[in-house]
Amino acid sequence: MSNINVSVPQFLLEMSKQLNEQDSRYTSDPLFEVRYKKHLVTEAGYNESHWEILDGDGQTLYHSEKSEDYSEIAEHVFENNEQWSSSFWGDYEETRFLDCTKAEFIECFNDHFDSDWCDLPDDLVKLHMQEVEVTVNSHFTEADAEAFIERKQHDYPKLYTYAISMCYCWNMIELRNWIASLYCESKNINK
């Protein structure tokens, strides 16, 4: 077989340099994924990350990871569900609902509302959510993953990089190792 003289493209030499100089994040044969987090509706207690209470328009009134204050729910039901509010008020206060102020109702609601035991008005819904990670794409180098994020962040929720191992992906490992060897070879040739 004859020797073929092929020049290595500059982008492969740059990738090789990055592979040799980047932090592996304590991962064997890392591949850098660009990811974002997404929330999906799930059953209570099944891989649940948090829960939310939404109004009929889909507006979140309460997010269990962000607050323990039920004021937005209380204000919504006070203004939109007089019958439900009156019943809730009557369970905890001896005075008539019509005599209470919005501030008093919100305080009472925050003191006594328990999302596990109290029913909600029909126009509100409690959704249990699970957090999943969505992979957008993968890169041999972290620099390329970061460049993608800088270029395309405006099209996605908050993007971040995550290093995975290509363990047992023999062809990918061989390709990565070959690309990494190009930088070392080019340094030896230039000496």
Summarize the structure.
This protein is of the alpha+beta class and 191 residues long.
Question: Explain this structure to me?
Answer:
The structure is a single chain. With 191 residues, the protein is α+β, with helices and mostly antiparallel strands. Helices cover 39% and strands 23% of the residues. The chain has a five-stranded antiparallel sheet with strand order 3-2-4-1-5. The model has no long low-confidence stretch (mean pLDDT 93).
Describe the structure using short key phrases.
single chain, 23% strand, 5-stranded antiparallel β-sheet, alpha+beta, 2 domains, rod-shaped
Radius of gyration: 28 Å
Number of strands: 5
Question: What integer is the average pLDDT?
Answer: 93
| Proportion of beta-strand residues | 15-25%
Secondary-structure content class? alpha+beta
Q: Spans of 5+ residues with little confidence (pLDDT < 50)?
A: none
Order of helices and strands: HEEEHHHEHEH
**How many domains is the backbone divided into?**
2
Major sheet size, sense and barrel closure: 5 strands, antiparallel
Helix segment count?
A: 6
Q: What share of the residues lie within helices?
A: 25-40%
Distance between the termini: 28 Å
Strand order of the largest sheet: 3-2-4-1-5
Which outline best applies? rod-shaped
